[in-house]
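Support request, priority: normal
Reporter: lab tech (M.K.)
Component: structure prediction queue

Hi team, I submitted a job for EF-hand domain-containing protein from Pseudomonas wuhanensis yesterday, and the status page still shows it as pending. I've pasted the exact input below so you can check whether something in the sequence is tripping the parser. The sequence length should be 152 residues. Please let me know if I need to resubmit or if it's stuck on your end.
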Amino acid sequence: MSRIPNKTRIGLAAVALAGAMSLASTAFAMETLPQGYQLASAEKAGEGKCGEGKCGSSDASAKATQAEGKCGEGKCGDASFARTDTDDDGRVALKEFLAVAPTKSEEFKAMDTNNDGYLSEAETYTYRSNQYTSNGKKVPTELFTRMSQAKG
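Reply from support: The job had stalled in the queue. We restarted it manually and it finished. Here are the results:
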């Protein structure tokens, strides 16, 4: 059995201690996280994009996802319908609808309750307000001032 001299043992212990101290500042070290980081993520979880049943007409859902913004910034409700109605005839044809929401032809069919191939403001408002109420939410009347007055 070989014996290690005391000076060598002390030297090895010092090297091990210095190594352990340097590891304390690496990725394996624990750091305290800022208070409230979970609160910020919880607030975002309740948010959504226009067209996910949280805003007015998803007629502009494709445009809304291209230019993110909050509901009420011209991306939902009356403003969305007006922007989608590119020929300004007061109704949205399937072609106009698919120009902004190319994958939503089934939704168009569900919204077009009289099956005339066009969405009126009244049909769109009825469909969107039903989405809100079926999710237990209040319909944001400020987004649908004109559409809520439309007659079917």
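The CA atoms of residues 94 and 133 lie 26 Å apart. DSSP finds seven helices and two strands in the chain. Let us know if anything else looks off. Ticket resolved.
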